[in-house]
Amino acid sequence: MALANIAINLASVGSNFPSSIDKLKNSSIKAQINLRVSRNSLVKTVQSSSVESDTGKWARKRRPQNVDGDFFVDHTCIDCDTCRWMAPQVFTRVGEMSVVYKQPTSSEDRLKALQALLSCPTSSIRTEVPPPDILEAQETFPIPVDEKKLPGVYHCGYHSEKSYGAASYLIIHPGGNILIDSPRFTEKLAKEIETMGGVRYLFLTHKDDVADHAKWATRFSCDRILHSEDVEICTADVEMKLEGNGPWSLGDDIMLVHAPGHTEGTVCLLYKPLKILFTGDHLMMTESGLSIAEMYNKYSVPKQVDSVQKLIQFDFDWIIPGHGRRIQFKDVQEKNTILEAFVREKYKQYSSSYK
User: Fold this and answer.
1) 325 with 284: CB under 8 angstroms?
2) 74 exposed, middle or buried (CB, 10 Å; 0-12, 13-18, 19+)?
3) 155, 179 in Cβ contact below 8 A?
4) 115: domain CATH number?
5) How many C-beta atoms lie closer than 10 Å to residue 266's C-beta?
6) Residue 120: helix, strand or coil by DSSP?
7) Structural domain that includes position 79
8) 154 and 91 housed in the same domain
9) What was the pLDDT predicted at 22?
10) pLDDT band at 56 (very low <50, low <70, confident <90, very high)
11) 110-140 pLDDT, tens per residue?
12) In whole angstroms, how large is the CA radius of gyration of the chain?
């Protein structure tokens, strides 16, 4: 399917802003945001590998900050935040790494802990006893994001260390399913996705989160989409390279929005029917608030702020990032108010960059 420039149509929205992220309003208007984000991976992955090679089994032992019990996090944790948003009733952050602060006591909590274990990009979540129900947990992937509000949208799990622990999502679409960014390749996940109709397009938001894209492309004979500015040696053979500034259309209900800043070729995917913006590393919600993760910027922070400003014109209720937590806005007015305040403070913070 050819990609073409399309016009932007705005419409009103209506939804509920979840209480779990009420702090977004306050955090978004601070000039400085604590950037303890999931992308600590780059440095810590190197540190973890070094520690493990130097000290052997020590790195795989439980951190002393874990509570007693079966589940624990070892010293190889890269602080990607995955387990903390997947199973917040079990995992928290202590000493710049995740730990188990409460052992699961219900079947639901145990399942979420096992899903987090399977999704951990560095296999840093472990159990004292091999879990007899691990196969049952594997069969739950891909996981519905919200069956009532977002039907047909799934979290793939199996985060890859090669993508710094980024999340991947699947959209079930009548024109062919769309895989957004690459999860770690496992045949078990591939078989489950196959039963759901396979993959027609593998949309790569930017060059960082491509992980096992080639294996997925081979498995499903799907077309990969990536902006030409982010094409590297490992992605030189992607089937569809976006050129220019867009926006581009993928059918009638999907818009691809160029959002340069984190990288030169970062592109967001707007799924119009459910008003979801998949942002990759462009914009995210961390434990500390709304963030563009400046410390991991690879191109231009000021341009990234400009690209956040650009999002105000689009109609969406949800932000689903590659890193960090999902955001649901109450309505378009709330979305615009929060983004405008965030951009205003960032412009103030980086005003010297524009001189």
Assistant:
1) yes
2) buried
3) no
4) 3.30.70.20
5) 28
6) coil
7) 59-133
8) no
9) 41
10) low
11) 999 999 999 999 999 999 999 999 999 999 9
12) 20
